[in-house]
Amino acid sequence: MSSLEELQLLIHDTYGLDAAALGPVASMRGSGIDSLTLVEFLFAVEDKYGIAIPTESSKVDTLTELAALIDKLRASQTA
To answer: Domain containing 28: what range?
Structure first.
């Protein structure tokens, strides 16, 4: 399963949002996720993947951007 699919599943399981409504390029903020919920979701992502998302990356808006960031951070951990 790709990071993108895992994120869609996590956001569905956590917030009950339909994964189909959260397409790869759809804005998470425009899909019913407010700023506080997005921060909480980023904390959940950090816990799930054992990573620390840099503060400057908090402007990530789509699941595709977040999946790419996760893949980059995970790759840097194993290097």
So the answer is: 3-78
